[in-house]
Design a protein that fits this description.
Number of strands: 2
Largest sheet: 2 strands, antiparallel
Helix content: 55-70%
Number of domains: 1
Mean pLDDT: 92
Strand order of the largest sheet: 1-2
């Protein structure tokens, strides 16, 4: 995927750029809808330091989205690096969320905030969100890296 010497800088296919942009909008929107409320940031049972880390995670949603869009929309001679950077920034929030459950004492939901709407067919709703975001990230990556991808200048 590395360009030949002298190859011009190109932008990844519009389809990939639009998907990465959509992901960059939905990530902070979804994370703020899920966490900027009484279950996390305004939860009276959480100590201030726990709220700090919740806010830190919310800030990561903005920053990761911005980084993903930057790499998706910039011109580059190194197509593979641009695609991998955009993909990694789009996926890292969700990968970290999956990995977080393996730390001692963690849970997908706080017992005092779980509702029937929190589960879909016995599976936490955020698992569906993770799958959705990671599948869209994989699709954007594939569209940019497939052999007949239309990179533009």
């Amino acid at each position: 995927m590395k360009p030949a010497k002298g190859q011009t800088q190109m932008k990844m296919p519009l389809s990939s750029r639009l998907i990465f942009a959509l992901l960059a909008i939905l990530l902070p929107l979804g994370s703020h809808l899920a966490d900027f409320n009484k279950t996390h940031i305004f939860n009276p049972n959480w100590p201030p330091h726990a709220k700090f880390h919740g806010a830190q995670t919310l800030m990561f949603s903005w920053l990761l989205g911005i980084c993903s869009v930057f790499f998706a929309w910039r011109k580059s001679k190194d197509r593979l690096a641009s695609v991998l950077a955009a993909s990694l920034f789009a996926a890292v929030y969700w990968i970290a969320q999956i990995g977080a459950i393996f730390y001692p004492g963690t849970a997908v939901f706080d017992p005092d905030t779980i509702t029937p709407a929190s589960m879909l067919m016995g599976i936490p709703g955020q698992i569906y969100a993770e799958a959705f975001f990671l599948i869209l990230t994989a699709l954007a990556t594939w569209l940019a890296l497939k052999s007949n991808a239309k990179w533009t200048d």
